[in-house]
Each structure stands twice: as C-alpha cells, then as structure tokens.
Design a protein that fits this description.
mainly alpha
C-alpha cells in the first residue's frame, strides 16, 4: 500500500539520516540494521491492525494479535539496539586508546579490547536474532492477513531480512580480530540466525506470491 502520511519526513527523522550521513563512524551499519528492524516491526504492526479492523479478516485475527504482542515492545527495543550498537563501537575505540607503555598496561589493554569487541559483536547479534523472530512471526501472519496489505507484509519481511544480513556483517567483522571458543560460538549463532531468517523470508515470499497469484 502506498498511503503516505503527513509529516513523514519531519526534522527529527531527517536528523537521524544526517547523523548517519556524517563523517563520524557512528551511527553506522549496525545501527542502520536496528533501524531497518524498527521499520519492519512498524510495517508488521500496521498489517496486523489493518487485519483486525474488519471482521471479514477474522481468520487472521489471532495471528494479528500475536504480531502486535511481539512487535509493540520489539519496536522500542530496536531503537535501543541502534543506540547500543553505537555505544559498543565507542567502547572498542576507548579500549584501543588505553595506555600501553608497560607490560601490565599492554595486558590490561588487550583484555579490554577483547571484552569490548565481544560486546560490539553481541549488539548486532541481538538485532539479527530479533529480526529472525519477526520473520518467523511474519510467516504465520502472511497466511491470513488482510490481503490488501500483503505487499506491506512482504516489505516488512524484506526489511527484517536486510536487518539480519546487515547485522551479521557487523558481527563477523568484529569477530574477525579475536579468537576463542566464545568467538566460535557467536559465529555459529549468527550463521544459524541468518539461515533461519532467509528460510522464513522465502516462505513469506512464496505465501504472498501465491495469495496474490503472482
């Protein structure tokens, strides 16, 4: 649905885009992934409410209610994830700025860098995991939602998949520079999340195309 609402591109929204477009390293890809997720949750909520608006879509009401229960808090969480991703990057930079004159300082600095880097990987992993949960929910919603909002639901799916994929890039680039069992575990987790996200997005696409007879 192409319905435009007044004031969409208000100054606050533009401020976010200008911040991303600046020469500062944050907010970067990880935060954009979380913001993409927020848009996906917003679209899912819209589809759910359009489905609940009419009794003729009663078959989809349970799935719509479940979507609202998931996405209302998750939308707020996605904004917090965007913030935490930028904060995690700043923590890594702060760790690199620690003194390294003595052996003790070098050891302490290395430990702090590793800890901060793991934190910087966890932030986008949380974004990707949330996106995967949304995609799983969209599978159910796609089968019975208001048919007039099917392309909006498909858009939510594509946005959520993009969020998962973008977030995975940020997980992997952070893990690139450290080693250990925890790194292997996080790598395995993000790989699984992306695989599951792709699978769910494909199911949503198939269902939407079938219902629209495309």
């Amino acid at each position: 649905m192409g319905n435009q609402k007044g004031g969409l591109m208000n100054e606050g929204y533009m401020d976010v885009l200008r911040s991303i477009a600046s020469s500062e390293p944050t907010p970067g890809g990880g935060s954009v992934a979380a913001l993409s997720l927020a848009h996906a949750h917003s679209l899912s909520l819209m589809v759910a409410r359009l489905t609940l608006a009419k009794e003729q879509w009663a078959e989809g009401h349970d799935a719509a209610k479940a979507s609202i229960e998931l996405s209302e808090p998750a939308l707020e969480e996605a904004i917090l994830l965007a913030i935490s991703d930028s904060e995690a990057f700043e923590s890594v930079m702060s760790a690199y700025r620690l003194p390294k004159e003595t052996e003790d300082e070098k050891i302490q600095r290395s430990e702090e860098i590793r800890k901060a880097t793991i934190g910087a990987a966890l932030a986008p992993l949380n974004t990707a995991s949330s996106a995967q949960k949304l995609l799983s929910n969209l599978e159910k919603q796609s089968a019975s939602c208001n048919p007039n909002a099917l392309t909006d639901l498909a858009s939510a799916s594509e946005m959520a998949l993009s969020a998962a994929k973008i977030a995975s890039l940020n997980v992997r680039i952070n893990l690139e520079y450290i080693e250990g069992e925890d790194v292997d575990l996080l790598t395995s987790k993000i790989n699984t999340v992306v695989e599951q996200s792709i699978e769910s997005a494909n199911i949503v696409s198939t269902t939407v195309n079938k219902r629209l007879e495309w």
